[in-house]
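FAQ: What does the model actually see?

It sees only this:
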Amino acid sequence: LELSCLRSGRPDSHPVSVLGCPMSPAAGSSVPVPARVQRRRRPVVVLSVVLALVVVALPGSAVQRLYVASGSQTSPAQASRRGLIAGAIGAALGPLSQEVQPAQAISGGGKDFSGQTLDGKSFKAGNYNTKDFSGAVAHDVDFSGSKFLGARFSKANLAGSDFSGSDCSGASFELANLEKVNFAGANLEGAYFSASIEDAKNLKGAVFTDALLPQKAVGILCAREDVQADPATRDSIPCP
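And it is asked to produce this:
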């Protein structure tokens, strides 16, 4: 049987099985890689070469930091220059080997607090930077004195809530219900608002530097007494 297996193989580049005998590719040949896989590999190969050239040109301290980021168990002091460079390239290419995960949907309840009913809860004096409150229902909720840098409140119902003294830099309040919301003393630099900002209860002491405000809303805000009462608020909008 072994002799039959040896004589019945084909000397081509494709491994075959004759009479149930597994065959290896002919010497010097290789199993062809599908074109789809080759296309996927090319960008990574090119990027690997570019990264190698960049890493080689880096100073030793920078290479050591990348080497540590690669997760190697060997200390930078014990590793050779070649090992440091290999580890650094591995750290840089690491994210490319991970599958891209689809973003979570916001509607219907997504990550963080989006789509949730938050009535009766308190978010006072906490750190909620970059958290997602999109579509949440938060009537009369205490958000005062907290950090909401880059947080999302898009389409949230925040009626009667208190953001006084909070840092909402870069937060998005697009299409949110801001009826009777208290923004007194809040940092709203770079925040994104719709026309609903006109419905806020108190804006005294709030800072709007670089905030995105509808042009019509700017005129209405500048006519408010609480805005005119504080030069910092008035000038940050800015009002004429």
